[in-house]
Design goal:
Layout lengths: L4 H22 L8 H17 L2 H7 L16 H13 L22 E4 L4 E3 L3 E7 L14 E8 L4 E4 L1 E4 L4 E7 L4 E11 L1 H13 L4 E9 L2 E8 L9 E3 L10 E3 L9 E9 L6 H4 L10 E5 L4 E5 L17 E4 L2 E4 L11 H8 L3 E6 L1 H13 L4 E2 L11 E5 L4 E7 L9 E2 L6 H5 L8 E6 L9 H21 L4 E5 L11 H4 L1 H14 L6 E3 L1 H6 L11 H15 L4 H13 L1
Parallel strand pairs: 1-14, 2-15, 18-21, 18-23, 23-24, 24-25
Antiparallel strand pairs: 1-3, 3-7, 4-5, 4-8, 6-7, 8-14, 8-15, 9-10, 9-13, 10-12, 11-12, 13-22, 16-17, 19-20, 20-21
Helix pairs in contact: 1-2, 8-14, 10-12
Length: about 575
């Protein structure tokens, strides 16, 4: 390397002189430079710098296995290690032989499950179910990777709980359910996607992160232009406007308008969804009623009877793999945390929120909470901020009881119809503006709009939010922070490619891991939607939203120790 340097010396000198001349020509008007000119200047500057550090540069531009996953601030060694750990923790077993024909892929209609053990059990035990996956020819599968979800329920009791699915990677699975109530219980097992479809979803996530595209409107005087925007954009010979957030380093780019400057952007909106993403072969694995959210049937016993726990027996202890809670008479019962309270009238909610400031940040599933409280509590009066419908920001006030309620959507990527550029705020930056305290409640839900991007993008966003949460709790440890997880939703062949539950499940696992050990409350929307009998929807139906709000209000206004002891005695008697 050292022997070659003299040959390239003239080139290095020329680059340095070019950069210096450009700097002198623009030194007096640097503030007026548009985004593309600044980009050109920094490219030349970086070329000069990299010419003398060729080896270091080559190492830094080695492409990642994902597309545009590592734009933004350079990660620290600790962040790289955390990301590696998280990606390994959600790694998914794929078929040993890629490219299997449909007839050899997983067929939920021919697959079956068998309930182990006797027909009668006791509360506090565990029910184990063996699952056997067959292909369309009725032959046993020899590899794992199918995406299965499971629920144990008693319809007449309005009871339900999720099961833990264990993949043995040989076409067989085991599902474990905790037995939490007495009565006749049934197993409900669903194949969301066969393993062959998961392989396709992985490919789309890594290779087609722009399958949802965005747009921005630029306007100055009588001129207006609309260009495409995203986390990263192929150059195509077009200059880019760089809207990377200076505080968090979160990247965002738009193609520069032909006639206008980058500073004339006035709005952001969802552009649309790309079509023709699948080959004819891949499309076979995304058929409604065939291999998308199809139930797997039982063989042998259809249900079992659970008897009350024996007196003197210790009930099953909670562990990291235990469910967050379960439904009983359609009421959510958390297994850890506060005793669940029922807020069935508006006065009870008003008394609980008296003197409180509630900040809500996130997507439309968080906006549901704002809408629920405004509809249920007449004392809350919404201010007209002239915000677009379903976009926000929103604010409601009950001046008599000193209650302030706000909602703001998270920053890009956000698939709303149209959001003013001035209202595109990152959650981490908003958290840094909150003083906090015992009168402050922060509710955050960021997940759905990240399902089309590599997991690294979601990890980076959560990392910034986590840092801001820690800073907030350091300022005021008594601040209540509740983080909402992803939930299941209705799927068809098209929506599976953008919003599959498989994407959401991966995000759910990442979120739980990243906020473990931090003084926040996790609202497990995944389990609250999976264990309920109502259909899966992107926006959970009202009964589930009510249970979510009752849980949040139970965090805000926990029951007294005396009442808590009374509730525990009632549970033991069931």
């Amino acid at each position: 390397m050292e022997g070659r340097m003299p040959r390239f010396a003239p080139i290095f000198v020329l680059l340095a002189l070019s950069g210096f001349i450009l700097l002198l020509r623009n030194i007096t008007s640097l503030e007026k430079l548009n985004c593309q000119t600044m980009s050109t200047f920094y490219q030349i500057q970086n070329s000069i710098h990299s010419a003398f550090k060729l080896t270091e540069t080559l190492l830094s531009v080695v492409p990642n296995h994902t597309y545009c996953a590592h734009l933004g601030q350079k990660p620290t060694l600790e962040e790289i290690r955390e990301e590696s750990y998280l990606l390994n923790s959600i790694s998914w077993p794929g078929p040993l032989v890629p490219g299997l024909p449909l007839r050899l892929s997983s067929d939920p209609a021919q697959s079956y499950f068998v309930i182990r053990g006797p027909a009668k059990w006791r509360v506090g035990g565990q029910l184990v179910v063996d699952v056997h996956i067959l292909n369309f020819m009725g032959q046993p599968k020899t590899h794992g990777g199918d995406f299965l979800v499971a629920r144990l329920h008693s319809a007449e009791l309005g009871a339900g709980v999720v099961g833990q699915v264990h993949d043995h990677r040989d076409g067989n699975y085991t599902v474990v359910f905790p037995l939490l109530w007495a009565g006749v219980v049934q197993v409900e097992l669903t194949m969301v996607h066969p393993s062959e479809a998961v392989v396709v979803l992985k490919r789309l996530r890594e290779q087609q992160p722009d399958r949802v595209y965005f747009k921005s409107l630029f306007r100055s005087g009588f001129l207006s232009e609309t260009t495409v925007c995203n986390l990263c954009l192929p150059h195509k010979g077009q200059p880019l406007c760089n809207y990377t957030d200076p505080q968090t380093g979160e990247p965002w780019y738009c193609y520069k308008p032909k006639m206008l400057g980058c500073d004339t952007r006035i709005s952001h909106s969802k552009g649309g969804y790309k079509k023709n993403l699948l080959t004819k072969y891949e499309a076979q694995f995304f058929q409604s009623g065939i291999n998308i959210k199809v139930p797997i049937h039982y063989s042998g016993m259809e249900n079992v009877t659970v008897l009350p726990a024996e007196k003197g027996k210790i009930r099953m202890k909670s562990s990291r793999l235990s469910p967050a809670g379960y439904y009983y008479y359609d009421t959510w019962r958390p297994l850890t945390g506060p005793v669940m309270r029922q807020f069935n009238d508006s006065s009870a909610i008003t008394q609980c929120l008296k003197g409180k400031i509630i900040y809500m940040f996130g997507d439309s599933t968080v906006r549901q909470w704002f809408e629920y409280l405004n509809a249920f509590v007449p004392e809350l009066k919404e201010f007209n901020l002239h915000s677009p419908k379903n976009v926000g920001p929103y604010m409601s006030v009950d001046s008599e009881h000193e209650i302030l309620l706000t909602y703001r959507c998270h920053g890009p990527p956000i698939r709303f119809t149209s959001v003013s550029s001035s209202e595109m705020h990152y959650v981490a930056n908003e958290l840094d503006r909150i003083q906090g305290g015992s009168d402050t409640v922060v509710l955050v839900g960021v997940w759905s709009h990240f399902s089309t991007f590599p997991v690294e993008v979601y990890i980076r966003r959560l990392r910034h939010i986590r840092r801001a949460v820690i800073r907030l709790l350091n300022r005021e440890p008594s601040t209540l922070v509740v983080i909402r997880t992803a939930n299941l939703q209705k799927l068809d062949p098209e929506s599976s490619l953008f919003n599959s539950d498989w994407f959401s499940q991966q995000q759910d696992l990442v979120l739980h891991t990243m906020f473990r050990g931090i003084n926040v409350r996790i609202l497990n929307a995944w389990e609250m939607t999976l264990s309920h009998h109502l259909p899966h929807l992107l926006h959970p139906p009202p009964p589930i939203v009510k249970n979510m709000m009752d849980l949040i209000l139970s965090y805000i206004c926990p029951v007294s120790k005396k009442r808590e002891g009374s509730n525990k005695r009632l549970k033991k008697e069931q």
